Structure prediction request, 142 residues.
Amino acid sequence: MKTLTTRFMIAVVALAAAAGSASAQTYKAEIPMAFHAGSKLMAPGSYELILTTTTGYNVVRVRSSDGKESVFLLSTAGSDAPKAWRADSTPKIGFECSGRNCSLSQLYDGSDIATYRFSTHKLPAAEAERAAIVTVALTRAD
Prediction:
């Protein structure tokens, strides 16, 4: 199943890169903790998040500023952004954290109603009840 998911992600990324009607937005973030982006563990540090939208697919590339780490994430249909995020009108990313384990779970572009959602690690029921949402502000790099 993991191989199938990986192949699907590569195909979507290739489609996004090849599409002439693709649009991209770049955001920068200073992330103070280690986190999972998809199945990859990323170190704390400066990151760029490049959102590419093409033919109904939203792909986000999470790339460390030094270029050493990079991962592509396929966005699923998001839910409405929290009211506080919409009122602030600045881009943000959200993490689902349980203890010291955090996973990138959503991206808000600062203007849309909905967020871009990403699959996260499944938590055991006892941990899911204690999970917290951590928000990190983004800046537009465009």
Notes: Residues 33 and 44 are 5 Å apart (CA to CA). Residues 2-18 form the longest helix (17 residues). The radius of gyration is 15 Å. Confidence is low (pLDDT under 50) at residues 15-21.
